[in-house]
Design goal:
The protein is 32% helix and 26% strand. The protein is α+β, with helices and mostly antiparallel strands. The longest helix is centred in the middle third of the chain and has 23 residues.
Amino acid sequence: MNSIKILENKTITDVPFFKASGVHCGLKKLKQDLCVIYSEKEAVAAATFTKNKVKAAPVLLNMKTIENHNIQAIVANSGNANACTGDAGYKDAILMAELTAKELNLSSSEVLVASTGVIGQPLPFDKVENGIKMACETLSSEGGEDAGKAIMTTDTFLKKFTIEFQVGGKKSMMSAIAKGSGMIHPNMGTMLSFIVTDTNISKSMLNKALKESVEDSYNMVSVDGDTSTNDMVIVLANGSSENKLIDCENQDYEDFKTALHFLNVELSKMIAKDGEGATKLLEVIVNNAKTLEDAKICSKAVITSSLVKSAFFGADANWGRIICALGYSGADLNVNAINIFFSNEMGNIQICKDGGNIGFDETLAKKILEEEKITITINLNDGVFSATAWGCDLTYDYVKINGSYRS
């Protein structure tokens, strides 16, 4: 695998033949709230969607549309989730696709739709219609950042990431914009991630690569334990790179999947870091589990525990809460073999050995826990499998933000 190069200050519209825009149409008071992403060339698409049984109208529509071979556009709004809005909401999602298709001279079956915001409120469609027209008229090769801003809700920073990599000896690019801050939980949350690439890859291989990557990236993120109605990850590949078509699981496929997963993990960390009210990014690494499933169950149990998250907010090295979460996780483990460590740039400290008290330097532990990023490494000493999950601390501000979300 050739090395992956991170391209600073680049975004989705730096990928060849992709244009985008982000406009304000009135769904939010002041900020951009509708975007369009458009491939000038035909593109194949893959997507994953929320596992919540309550699915927003755009999710239900996309689950059908994604089966089509050519997908050239995504239209997305923030400020209104278009979820739990019945037949009228589903018709609105269809209209969003139809209006975008008309403006871009496409079929509505070549347009995917996304929404994020407050659940249960009718979509003010006159505003959306005007927004779609404005967004399509202002599509440009400089519109990537505006598109990223238009999908933000309680996010505190723009989430974008761009890489360059090699496939079959040819240069390829991949870039994404994402949003996610609250209602984030394994199996994705109120999280949108739109990925574009110029790699030449078949739809079936793109779908396989995405689904495998999502399991160990976005699905390993938890902010608050709530799985949303609207989350989705979409990737468009327009094949404009000169690489030979990837249509089987060869080395080119492995190189592409490695690049896609690298990008997805970085975006997952950004989403975890930007949890509503969060002050710390938490990374939970579980090593030497009996099975991969046990490793994932353990890492998720720790990262989702409100008591654990509260302890990290207070910089309290309360390892008992961690081992408690492991104990109720349902994983097959030997509690008398568990070792727990905290680490970051301030140092590395073991706080639990063989499932019990080891006696540790409380001052060093507090210094580590006062930093913005903390790695919690858990060695189960019971097998060979590992998993990593990402999350954040639980703060007073989380309650403040979600206590007045509709305001």
